[in-house]
Amino acid sequence: MGYTLDLSGVVFPEKQGFATYMAVPADLDEDQIFKRITEYFKVGQYAYQSPVACNINREVQQKRPQGLYVFAHMAGGEPDAKHLGKSYDDATAAGMTFMNPKEYLLATGFHRWINKTHFMDVKGWTRTSSLWSDGNLVNGNFNPSNSKLYLSNGNRDNRNPDNGPREKF
Asked: What is the pTM of this model?
């Protein structure tokens, strides 16, 4: 993809069960990452609101470190099994730290690159820790029937058993 990161001095978090690491660059926003991933894998994209970076409510988004940072997650093709059916409201009330749209895009792009055939969330949807500017939840998934990667909208209190947040550390 023509992008290089200097990870010297960056702390890699360690927690039992969180074996996949993702580096989050400060100088790329959701739209740039979305575009690079969909162009690289030659798939379409759908965003409920566009441009994505301008339409995420940053005031209510979980705080992240400034600059380049690394997080760990549980990996897997579908939302975390232990959090299936958990709504955005449930996860935030429990104090869970879970992926935002930028982290989700990086993780699903990496998942596709490693697995060669598929993005994350073909069956279920990942509930991110972010809301759109209109208050709807930002959800992510991939639809193989139309070959599109999605950042769609959902209800904050939805508890569909196939969907859930992806915890991060």
From this structure: 0.95
